[in-house]
Specification:
Elements lengths: L1 H27 L5 H6 L5 H10 L6 H13 L13 H36 L4 H14 L3 H15 L16 H35 L2 H8 L4 H38 L5 H11 L2 H29 L1 H6 L1
């Protein structure tokens, strides 16, 4: 297990390195001039050249990359080209919105998908199972922006239960207000992602029901439901964990859109603004953090698979 974990960790480090190179090079081909943007439209060429030299924008690309990645390894993501503030400090501050939003959305998706997916599989030959399957396919096709607007109309405008936009200035020092501000955005992401996950849970449950060990357990006196819960769910968990790990990327992408819709001061909203301002240092730091988060989730999924699936250990 330790050897496997070290191998996967090595691949994680290599993946982060390749991602950092691609992020750095991709941002350098974007149109526009950061120095011109900072200097303003009425600036002289001498002023623009001075800013470019001050920010080392004229250095060779390998030198710029080495300077940036060396700082990242020391915990220094650089300073914003526009405001001069430390990038890491802003990332930590914005993550206090984005990370809870993603975790809450993932929890909502699991609460929706697991019980309803199993129920849809158990009732597959009945009207209730068909209705759940149709509802899941319909919700999975709904654009997350449209779902968010409909939830705002229902829960914020008609019922007035939850705020439509914004996040308290005091942040998590006001936990009740902060949680209420994240409920609608998390519901928006969780319902759509939960509908997608429900279909996989249903398929995994149907596959588990047909396994020999479930039929054997039922033949020994357990009911079909007892056999499924006791012996089928552990087998089904492998597929669900894999799909859930893949959906983390979807939740992150959904958070970028949802933070714009609900005016949440998270990493996604900051990323969109920094791309528009061509603040390369901040953008490359934000993209590296988001990419690293996805890769770490994949690393964790691999380790969980290895830990709970005896077949992988026996094959090794």
């Amino acid at each position: 297990m330790i050897r496997y974990a070290l191998t996967r960790l090595t691949l994680l480090v290599v993946g982060l390195f390749v991602a950092s190179v691609l992020i750095f090079l991709t941002l350098r081909v974007l149109p526009g001039d950061v120095a011109q943007l900072i200097a303003g439209t009425n600036s002289t060429p001498e002023q623009v050249a001075a800013i470019r030299g001050q920010l080392h924008l004229g250095d060779p690309l390998p030198v710029q990359y080495a300077t940036w990645i060396g700082g990242v390894l020391r915990g220094d993501f650089g300073r914003s080209l526009i405001t001069g503030s430390p990038v890491l400090g802003e990332l930590v501050q914005k993550a206090q919105v984005t990370v809870p939003l993603g975790l809450l959305a993932m929890a909502i998706a699991l609460v929706i998908a697991v019980p309803l997916g199993v129920l849809a599989a158990v009732l597959r030959a009945r009207a209730g199972g068909t209705a759940l399957n149709v509802a899941a396919q319909t919700l999975a096709a709904v654009p997350v922006v449209w779902a968010g607007m409909m939830l705002v109309v229902v829960f914020a405008v008609w019922l007035g239960w939850l705020p439509a936009q914004g996040f308290p200035r005091a942040g998590w020092h006001q936990p009740g207000l902060a949680l209420r501000s994240l409920l609608l955005p998390a519901l928006t992401i969780g319902i759509v992602e939960g509908a997608m996950l429900l279909r996989f849970v249903r398929s995994a449950t149907l596959q588990a029901v047909g396994q020999d060990f479930v039929r054997t357990a039922a033949a020994k006196g357990l009911t079909r439901t007892q056999a499924l819960i006791r012996h089928g769910l552990p087998s089904m968990a492998l597929s669900v964990i894999t799909v859930l790990g893949l959906q983390v990327a979807g939740i992150i992408v959904g958070a970028v859109v949802i933070e714009q819709l609900f005016s949440l001061p998270g990493i996604g909203r900051m990323l969109v603004a920094d791309v528009g301002n061509r603040d390369l240092v901040k953008v490359q730091g934000e993209l590296l953090v988001l990419t690293g988060f996805v890769l770490v989730i994949g690393f964790a999924v691999d380790l969980v698979h290895r830990a709970i699936d005896p077949r992988q250990r026996e094959a090794a």
